[in-house]
Amino acid sequence: MSTGHTPPTAIHVEELTRRYGDLVAVDQVSFTVPGGQMTGFVGGNGAGKTTTMRMIMGVLGIHGGRVRWGDREITTTDRRGTGYMPEERGLYPKQKVREQLIYLAQLKGMSASEAKGEVTEYLERLGLAERMDDTVESLSLGNQQRVQITAALVDQPSALILDEPFSGLDPAAVDSMADLLREHTARGVPVLFSSHQLDLVDRLCDRLVILAGGQVRAEGTPDELRQGTALRYRVVGVSDVGWVRDVLPDGGGGGRVLDVDGSTAVVELAGDPGADQQVLDRLVSEASRRGGLRELAPIITPLSEIYREATA
Ligand SMILES: Nc1ncnc2c1ncn2[C@@H]1O[C@H](COP(=O)(O)OP(=O)(O)OP(=O)(O)O)[C@@H](O)[C@H]1O
């Protein structure tokens, strides 16, 4: 096995800017990709994700700002040790899978025998053991995607910059890919991956950067981003819970009733811990006066909602 490249403490993207003619595709974008963490990069079509990743990798000129590798400017050597999966998948269709991966690994500086060992292991773990000697073009798109990711992962990269690595993968492949990426974060590697699959990003990433119109709209852990959203609770009583409107009348009471449907209501609290607790206590005591409470539980805000609010 290769001894690999040393990961940076973090990659810092600082006020990166890129224009295409009059269009400012990436507009003073700043965020951090900490070592040992998976950072999800989300944003609608044309938000500027690919352009940002290309600038991080130095394959596209930077018009403003910079990329820092720990506490210094990123270098060509740092970039060479980074596993990059570009948007334009660059595999040779007619070459055999393993042969091609070994060739690419050798370009990174691995010896033929090291490359063969590592590539074979990855292909086996990704369920491609029986397809190693087939040409890339004979594989399904999802399997080609697995090969493409393997190309980024070999040679123990110091960082991973992956443009839509999960697109087109079946759920089992997503899980094995996520396990592989976790092995790299366990070595301290910073991982940045773009995706349109918000449920998957929510499940896999430690941090999140939301981009819209070439600008960062939100950045943080999913929990940090949720803290900025209103706290919602589901109230389930034994019978009709219309009484929640007495606890939280319109315009007062420290929150509001969003919905009442028979024995279930959804209420939104103000987000002030002390005051919220008082409202919850009032709901509990009112429910017990009215026959009892079946459930009083917070509703976890789905990432899709945070995303919608951040990009609205
Ligand atoms: N080579 C180019 N020439 C001109 N405009 C470009 C070029 N590449 C990208 N753009 C524009 O820059 C903006 C950002 O594009 P980019 O590909 O970075 O977005 P993205 O977030 O990766 O989108 P998607 O999710 O659709 O891949 C878009 O408006 C796009 O049309």
TrEMBL record:
All residue ranges annotated as the ABC transporter domain in the record: 11-238
SUPFAM superfamilies from the UniProt entry: P-loop containing nucleoside triphosphate hydrolases
GO molecular function, one term: ATP binding
Presence of the UniProt keyword Membrane in the record: no
Keywords in alphabetical order: ATP-binding, Nucleotide-binding, Transport
InterPro entries: AAA+_ATPase (IPR003593), ABC_transporter-like_ATP-bd (IPR003439), P-loop_NTPase (IPR027417)
Keyword ATP-binding set for record: yes
Domain of life, per lineage: Bacteria
Family as reported in the entry's similarity comment: Belongs to the ABC transporter superfamily.
Name of the protein: ABC-2 type transport system ATP-binding protein
The species this protein was found in: Marihabitans asiaticum
